[in-house]
Structures are given as structure tokens and as C-alpha cells.
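Quick question, first post here. What does this chain look like in 3D?
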Amino acid sequence: MSNTLEKTLNDLEKLVEELESGDLPLEDAMKKFEEGIKLTRGAQAALKDAEQKVEVLLKSAGGEDVLEDFEPYD
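> Answer (accepted):
Ran it through. C-alpha cells below.
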């Protein structure tokens, strides 16, 4: 995980804590929510990019038969 992705995830965690506190005025909460959506989209793009790089590395290492769909834990 890159530092940028780690920072994004930390920022998202802080946003969630702020939103869950219930102490924000509605307008501020909406702005935080929008910011969270943008951060989430950025994190998803970074993860997709990392997944593609791993696939390329595995294929170039002759591990084409090893690739399986990733199923995240719920």
C-alpha cells in the first residue's frame, strides 16, 4: 500500500469519525460526506491500479495459472 493510499484511508477514517460524532452542522456534514466520496473514488482507483500491476507481474513471472479472483472478507 502506497503512502498516498494509506493517507487517503486515514483521512477517510477521520471523516467517518467526525460524521459519526453527530456534532457537525448539516452543511458541514454534507461537505465532509462529499469529501469522503472523492477520497473513496481515489482509493478505489489506486487499488485497481495496484491490482493491475500485480496481475502484470504475475503474468511476467509465468504465474498465469495462479491468478484467482480476489474475494475480500466481509
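The chain has two helices and no strands.
The chain has a mean pLDDT of 84.
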